[in-house]
Amino acid sequence: MHNTFQNPRIERQRGREIEKMGRKANCDNQYAMNRGPWSAEEDKILMNYVQVHGEGKWRELSKRAGLKRCGKSCRLRWLNYLKPDIKRGNISSDEEDLIIRLHKLLGNRWSLIAGRLPGRTDNEIKNYWNTYLRKKAEHKHDKIPSHNDNIPIKLRIESPGCSKNSFGNVLDPTKSPHPMRCTKVMMPVNDSVNTTNLITTSWDNHNPSSASMQLDDYNHCLTGVLQEFDISDLLMSYEDDFRFNGYACVEIPQHIFEDETCRLDDSLGEEAWYENWKNDPYFPQDQDMGFSSF
DNA sequence: AACGGGTGCAACCGCAAACGA
DNA sequence: TTCGTTTGCGGTTGCACCCGT
């Protein structure tokens, strides 16, 4: 499962745990502990204890609350099942779509994906993916985004060579099925949603050498990786708190750049520098940026 | 009704990072 | 800095349930 690297410290730790717990190094003393599904009574005890004393110190919690469950088990039960704000079941089509897109970006980073779906747990998303969405995503993989998709990112396209005249053109990537090459992505940092991490992670997956993404003086993330990617990787579903007001500079072949069918607006004659980001009418901060508004 | 294979999902496991003394 | 403990994560397991035969 994991790598076989033997960390001496970890080995010592495991040795201690094995010694302490008996034959198997799982958690606490397994022979005195309940295992398997939780009873309603156990749930009640755990819930009452957490409501009074708060989360954390799970091992201590299990002892003090009189639960014959190991600390890990208590934590898991609370986080995945008992916590009040948890939504369970009935995953909507919007959520499905978001999971698929996030998985495409992040891979099996379930906790990160869950972090973007309020009320959903990593375990639920992982199970949902493994039992249902994986197949669905495979079918969806080849789909070119349709014009009806609600895509909150606009792209500014630089022509080959980044000539001055080319700045400001806005293309509809959904009308261009050609793969593009990303040379630079600038994203405004949103306090409520850390889009920087998301984008960084996606680059990291493909290109470990681009592990760090710097922020500039204007608190925009900025990277100069030369990374092949499918333009649809950046197309995200619109969510109230999950918005990609993005500015991607991409290299595209000249003939695509000159293709009028892709071009939506070329009225801007000059580059809008990213320090003017928030004043740029092409990247409004507070409204839906679906392509229908072009 | 009984059986067996497939499926979904809660719970478990091992590992590593984070934390704190 | 070191070491013990706690927390968080992702992969895996095992069991209940479903459905076809």
From TrEMBL:
SMART domains linked: SANT
Q: Where in the cell is it found?
A: Nucleus
Superkingdom of the organism of origin: Eukaryota
List each copy of the Myb-like domain by range.
30-82, 83-133
Q: Indicate the segments forming the HTH myb-type domain, all copies.
A: 34-82, 83-137
GO MF, one example: transcription cis-regulatory region binding
Q: Which GO terms describe its cellular component?
A: nucleus
Query: Which GO biological-process labels does this protein carry?
Result: cell differentiation; regulation of DNA-templated transcription
Q: Where do transmembrane segments lie in this chain?
A: none
What Pfam families does the annotation carry? Answer: Myb_DNA-binding
Per its UniProt record, what InterPro entries does this chain match?
Homeodomain-like_sf, Myb_dom, Myb_TF_plants, SANT/Myb
Could you tell me the keywords of this UniProt record? Answer: Activator, DNA-binding, Nucleus, Repeat, Transcription, Transcription regulation
Report whether Nucleus shows up as a keyword of the record. yes
- What is the protein name for this chain? Myb-related protein 123
